[in-house]
Amino acid sequence: MPILSSLHSGIPGRQAPLLAATGASRTAFAQSMAHLIEIGLMERNPGHGHPLRPEFRLTAQGIAAAALAARIQRASESEDQTLLRRSWTLPVLTSLHQSGHFNEIRRNLPGITDRALSQALKAMEDKGWVQRDVDNAARPPRSIYRAIGFGAELSRITAAEIEFEPGE
Question: At residue 46, what are phi and psi to the nearest 5 degrees?
């Protein structure tokens, strides 16, 4: 997210300025750049940069993602960034644009394990971003999760930007 929001704010798409802007280690930066290229949000800028110091640019899909990353970055400036950097925090919050049971959330997030979802929900509950209520009317009783406070704000930002299709 810091790389995308940095590019959105006008930081040049070269390693040195992006490293300075994000504060990432070289290894983490290289892994993040490789991942962003792999998922199609960034590409090498053809005809620019030296082979050892390439220049990168956002793809069309990356421009939209960078705008979203910048909105999240602005909204979270006063918050602890550690939880935001975890893999499943934003996808889980996006799925919580409506309250849901554990299995409903899991169905909306292909690839998440029960353990990863449980840990993400617990960490966000501890932070005050998610509230867990128990539905005692159901047999057996079931937990219902909903985004609250800052978690609800992030959920609104991400759900508004991402076309959300349950079960996909």
Answer: -65, 135
